[in-house]
Amino acid sequence: MGIQLTEQQQQVLDAHVETPPRVIDPRSNAAYYLIAAQEYDAVRELLDEERRLKAIRAVGLHNAVGRMEEGSRGRV
Q1: What is the pTM assigned to this prediction?
Q2: Does one domain contain both 27 and 45?
Q3: Which residue, 6, 3, 2, is CA-closest to 14?
Q4: Do 27 and 63 lie in a common domain?
Q5: Number of domains the chain is built from
């Protein structure tokens, strides 16, 4: 779902060339940053990749601990 920017919002967006404008939801006081879809997609890809690598590292660590425990049982 998309929304159309008002003229005032467009002016604020145009004025924030270096950094994205911060938007506040008056109902919850939650803050959001308004960024271009292309920038969002790039950041999203990086975050997804980081999550994937973190999951791979966790599995590797789990497997390494399991091998260490098996090795220590064999020496008893």
Answers
A1: 0.57
A2: no
A3: 6
A4: no
A5: 2
Closest CA to 44 of 55, 4, 52: 52
Percent of the chain clearing pLDDT 70 (strictly above): 96
DSSP code string of 49-73: HHHHHHHHHHHHHHHHHHHHHHHHH
Q: Are 3 and 13 in contact (CB under 8 A)?
A: no
Assess whether 56 and 73 both reside in one domain.
Answer: yes
For residues 45 and 66, membership in a common domain is answered with yes
pLDDT tens-digit readout, 38-71 = 999 999 999 999 999 999 999 988 888 888 887 7
15: CB partners within 8 A, 6+ apart: 21
Pairwise CA distance, residues 33 & 4, whole Å: 16
Overall residue count recorded for the chain in this entry: 76
Q: What is the pLDDT of residue 38?
A: 94
DSSP code at position 37: H
